[in-house]
Design a protein that fits this description.
Blueprint (H helix, E strand, L loop, with lengths): L1 H16 L4 E11 L13 H13 L4 E4 L2 E2 L6 E4 L2 E4 L2 E3 L4 E6 L2 H17 L3 E12 L3
Antiparallel strand pairs: 1-7, 1-8, 2-3, 2-7, 4-5, 5-6
Helix pairs in contact: 2-3
């Protein structure tokens, strides 16, 4: 019985750290630049992505993936000119696709205020609830 408990605990740690795939309900978020945008405030930057990710984790996300790259305990996001880099790998941008496993209603709700901020500058933040999402392992 103790071995079962340790194995379950190990699996939870591996899922949280991103070393195992993670499946469950969640959301798919797309963050896009303002149409024709070229001004600083009209473009999605790494700080916008980090704010989205932080909001998702604060709302109870069990795992997050950006552009197909799973964030783990040592994950990072940077913009290098017009390119978004996640964990040292370039990902597709405009839109940036962020997938998160967790309670879809809570995750969506956590992004509503940020969605309004995006709209004021012409940027778009769309959120789609999903019954099942599988995040890749790192």
């Amino acid at each position: 019985m103790e071995l079962d408990q340790l194995q379950k605990q190990l699996r939870r740690v591996q899922e949280a750290s991103g070393t195992l795939p993670l499946e469950g309900p969640g959301v798919i978020v797309e963050a896009a630049d303002a149409p024709g945008g070229y001004l600083w405030e009209e473009i999605v930057h790494d700080q916008d992505i980090r704010e989205i990710v932080n909001s998702l984790y604060h709302a109870g996300a069990e795992g997050v993936e950006i552009g197909g790259r799973r964030l783990g305990t040592a994950g990072w996001v940077r913009c290098v000119g017009p390119v978004v880099v996640v964990n040292g790998e370039t990902v597709a941008a405009n839109p940036i696709v962020i997938r998160a496993v967790g309670n879809p209603t809570r995750l969506e709700k956590s992004l509503r205020e940020l969605q309004e901020v995006f709209a004021r500058t012409g940027k778009r933040l769309s959120i789609e609830k999903k019954e099942s999402i599988t995040l890749t392992a790192r």
